[in-house]
Amino acid sequence: MVALATDVVENGHKWYVCTPMRALREYEAGLAIRRLPSIALLVVAVSHVARSQSVAGTVRDSASGQPLSGVVVQLKDISDSTLARSLSDEGGIYSLVVSGKPSKVQFLRLGFRPESRPLLKATGVAGLQLDIGMAALPSMLNAIQVEANPRCSARPDRESARSVWEQTRWAMLASIVARESNPATIRRIAFQRTMDAGGQQAVRQTVRSETATGTSPSFFALRAAPDLAQRGFRDDSAGYQRFYSPDAEILVADEFERAYCFHFARSDNKHGGQIGLAFEPAQRRAGRVDITGELWIDTLSRTLESVEFRYLGLDAISEGLGAGGMLSFTSLPNGVVMLDRWKMRLVGASAGSDDEATTRSGGLRTYHTMREIGGEVANATWGDGTSWSSPLGRARIRVVNERGLGVSGMAVGLVDTDYRSITDSLGYADISALAPGPYSVFVADTRLAEIGVTLPTGTSFSARRGSLVLTNLTLPNAENFATQACIERGYTDVRNVLIARVTQPRGVERSWDDPRNAMSWRAVRQRAGGDSIVATGKVADENGFVYLCDALAAGERVRVDISSRGKLVASGEKRISERLNVLHLPFDFGQLTDDGRTEADLRDLGAVAKIGGSVRDSVSGAAISGASVSLRDTPYLVLTDSNGTFAFPALNRRDYVLEVRTSRLDSIGTLKRIQLPLNRNNSDLLLFLPTERQIATAMCGASGSTSNSAAALQDRITANVGVLVGRIDPVLLSSSDTMLVVAEWRSSGELASAAGLPATMQRMVAAPSPNGSYQMCDVPIGVKLSVSLLGNGNPFPSVAPVEVTLTSLNFVRRADLTIVKPM
Q1: What distance in Å separates the CA atoms of residue 363 and residue 492, rounded to the nearest whole number?
Q2: Which of 395, 593, 645, 723 could disulfide-link to 469, CB 3.0 to 4.6 Å?
Q3: For residue 769, pLDDT beyond 60
Q4: Beta strands in 91-237 (DSSP E)
């Protein structure tokens, strides 16, 4: 098994964290997340003949007759090996196909007595219909037949605990089978957090997101079960500590069951209505890091809720500070069981800071840094149309100028994350699917973004699950930012500023402590009468920044040369045209090394790439100005000009993922994304964005027509109708079946108006989805709509109505509703 590995270095302590997330391929995103085709669960062949046969049927509760979803159905041969397996859906229906010699069909579900049916030789039928009734166990503690683990000490609850453990394995097996038989497209989020000294609050964090498709698990362990059982959950090698976390495959494995003993955990307030199954290693070995913990099961719904574990075999301080982790599971109506959240808490000694716990021993003080590393599934979509979203946090940020007016078309982001948005016409930027924790807001000035610099705003907030954060910020001034940077570097007479940045290619690692890697710079004034040196110096900033803050006159042309080991490695020219000027200097061929790579090899790595093109309307071909074009996982960002064009003039040649955002795409939570491969100039890209008609048609279809022809698309405008979308924050899941979004407007016909009669009230309603989003199709254009929320037929008193008007030029609008106090 393969996983991403992350170096974590802070305050002198170094961890090598094997995070259970798979590296994923990025796909181009259009209007919506790509859905996989529906998966036909027809599978199973059961007979003692070589040719393919099928078994299908329905699984029901034998007492109530209700269909059972999430039942693991397995075909077994005479040696008890699994030939095929599937999962019953929301209607209890299963279907299997296999070639081989199956001898029985097995049915397993948490909280129900297992069932097994023998299979006879084929009698000429093409398939077998096998409907099954499963009996619910009166109590989760009812024993099913299990074998005792002779390595465990005697306890009165061992047998019952092993029985519950066996059932729990079925639930975890369901999460594995669900990926095989009904794969999803998921968006998942990975985070790294530094915790405060008490280990309760995150003081800073990084967050990254990725999209997985097909049968990729949401998260998975790096080591296989036999290795973990034999070698433990940590490696120590060459100064690195590698920590490991279990996953469903590990916990369901026979090796794990043989290596651990089980008993019932004490109930607590945190796990009300749940039964806890504690596990601990059957044998401890010196120097081996192991885990102990509990699995928690909801006794009413009979579903696996979470696994919580702690590391054993660490120093007493680390164990006392809670080094360990957590896995969370969610069960969906279509029978899928999904690992939706996980995290690991790591504790280690370091040099010390205000964010670290301290201990004293023998007059010495030791500092311990606490970090959390983990991830969450933000949303998932299945081929059968089922979708699920986590109730993560959201932020609505308004950017205003010095006069308090909203600034449109401004790129807003959160530091050390992938979260980005574009402000709309009123200056609002919406960011969703926020992992809990602290965030700092930046805005992107297109000049500074060219060299990978963003403008800090001084605005920060903490996101919470299921909550909406509202905040305002005043747009910072890029010139003032540059002036302050010069003052901090000792300049007193700051006039025109030139900030140059030299970047090195991927694949060339530079140690700034090594004097061989020292770089020097010189600024040369270029004039008709000859060049003259303005200033020289050493590149002291490890990020490659060079600041020229005086002696620059408007209109003159300046060249900046970068040298390393006596060789010119980067050079660029800039005309001083304004108070703030920037210059990006990619390495031309990188650092010369002694590892066998030639200068030509390094030149290929560092060759300058050019990325540019235009952004256009996908129907008319008209240029789209003000679109944000950025390079994923870099701060580089530009806005398209009046001709829709953009350019990144000088970049190190490498793989990039280009993302295009507009306020209209942001309003429906999507963007345009394409991959740009290594070793290729992409200087003439033509990027087409969906029009409002296409957005509306993708949501609702053409008004009054099922056709997607150009004429049918025009119907939505000629019919004077548009689309209203939005979200309710926070989401009240317990009341989702009784909540309605209502749009009301006054309508008066010509006769009524002539007669002086009052206007009549018209309304449209929409039921929000489980994640709180809603949409209304065929909403009238040109009238003022009042959007409000009803619960159990009555207005929510804590929700202020939102007024919005759709127009023929802006007929896809967003109207979010905020619940101040949950009912």
Answers
A1: 47
A2: 395
A3: yes
A4: 93-98, 102-108, 115-118, 127-129, 132-134, 184-195, 202-212, 234-237
The model's pTM is: 0.74
Burial of 485 (0-12, 13-18, 19+ CB in 10 A): middle
Task: Please give the mean pLDDT across all residues of the chain.
Answer: 76
Beta bridge partners of 76: 82, 104
User: pLDDT tens for residues 214-225?
Assistant: 545 555 555 566
- In contact, 763 and 753? CB cutoff 8 Å: no
51: alpha, beta or left? (left if phi > 0; alpha if psi -120 to 50): beta
- Looking at per-residue confidence, does 335 or 598 come out higher? 335
Q: What are phi and psi of 180, to 5 degrees?
A: -75, -45
**What DSSP element (H or E) covers 112?**
none
**Kind of pairing between the strands at 817-818 and 721-729:** parallel
SS3 of 391, please?
coil
| pLDDT for 29 | 26
- The predicted-structure confidence for 23-80, as pLDDT tens digits, reads as follows 222 222 222 222 223 222 222 323 333 344 788 999 999 999 999 988 999 998 888 8
- Phi and psi, residue 660, nearest 5°: -120, 130
Closest CA to 277 of 428, 165, 397, 413: 165
Q: CA-CA distances (angstroms) from residue 324 to 246, 270, 626?
A: 11, 18, 47
Longest dimension (CA), the chain: 100
Residue 457 has pLDDT above 90, yes or no: yes
CB 272, CB 297: distance < 8 Å: no
Cβ atoms of 637 and 629 within 8 Å: the answer is yes
Strands 127-129 and 53-61: parallel
CA–CA separation, 410 and 627 (whole Å)? 9
d(CA 648, CA 658): 11
